[in-house]
Description:
alpha+beta, 4 helices, 32% helix, globular, GIY-YIG domain-containing protein, GIY-YIG_endonuc, GIY-YIG_endonuc_sf
Amino acid sequence: MIESEGRGPGAGAAGPSHDSKPIFIYHITHGEDGRVYVGQTAQPQQRWKQHQRKPPQLLRNDAQRYERLTDGFSFSIVKEVTGGAAAAHAAESAEIQRLRDTGVRVYNRITGDPARSRFFWAWQRERRHGGGRK
């Protein structure tokens, strides 16, 4: 079941805008141990296909055990959010925290706007420079 967030009476009445386009919060769940990766996207089916071709870095160790990602992981949409990137980051963070609070192990290391995280910038630097500072 998809939970909807950020919609109220008259939402989008002024016409379509970038901020009113729904963003979906999703889970990729490891079937063996129940560990969850939480992500966000405006195009869930396309994003799942991208992950199947190249799993998120945090899932790679577990994903390598399977011929296909779908052999060991499932994909589900858990929430629909409107209100733009800030609302999506907040909803994603809340979902990660909700899972942690209920004892579910998550792959995610950061919550909130990735650009505000030191992990994000270290990861970006590593991607650009092939392994860190040079």
